[in-house]
Amino acid sequence: MLRLMWEFFKAGLFAIGGGMATFPFLQEMSEKYNWFSQEELLNMIAVSESTPGAIGINVASFAGYKVYGITGAILASLSLIAPAIIIILIISKGLESFKNSLIIKNMFETIRPATAGLILGAMLNVMILSLFNVALYEKSGKFLDLFQILQIIIFVCFLIVLRKYKKIHPIIIIAIGAVLGIVFKL
């Protein structure tokens, strides 16, 4: 249980920028431990993006529950948010001195591009896992096995529709995505 708590604590500590910034850490956990599979991770992200709550918390709750039940869910979730709470408490104690600190300003200037890189990397990983079947391609060696044709067609159609109709409400997009996922068992 300590390993679960430590891994989610690290994810919470280094994933600056929100939910998708935790994806590289979650993906590493998926590969390193048997807490959840890559497919379960993608499903958790899909559900987390369409429900209230942060991706990291939802995944921590799921992984903790899967491995150690309710206690694991609570401890994994608390471990994920603990670094943010600690940092906020430290900053709130010395807010005035931080406000005009050149070191802090420089630190945030450095963190912003790193956060953007984490989020971009997470987005690319989700896209690759969703649209390509690398495992099947590695087994068969057939180029066409690399592509998940139905998912790519749906993705391209969504892009075309979103490009043409820019004012579609996000809830409608999420609902259509959920229906397509259920119908096509994506």
Summary tags:
mainly alpha
At a glance:
Helix 1 crosses helix 4. The chain has helices at 2-14, 23-32, 38-50, 55-93, 95-99, 102-131, 134-140, 149-164, 170-183.
Question: Can you give a write-up of this model?
Answer:
The protein has two domains: 2-130, no CATH class; 132-186, no CATH class. It contains nine helices and no strands. 79% of the residues lie in helices and 0% in strands. The radius of gyration is 19 Å and the shape is globular. The chain is mainly α and 186 residues long.
Helix content: over 70%
Q: Indicate the low-confidence ranges by residue numbers.
A: none
Number of DSSP E strands: 0
Globular, elongated, flat, extended or rod-shaped: what is the shape?
A: globular
Describe the biggest sheet? none
Rounded average pLDDT: 84
Q: Termini, distance in Å?
A: 32 Å
- What portion of residues belong to β-strands? under 5%
Number of helical segments with 4 or more residues? 9
How are the secondary structure elements laid out?
Elements lengths: L1 H13 L8 H10 L5 H13 L4 H39 L1 H5 L2 H30 L2 H7 L8 H16 L5 H14 L3
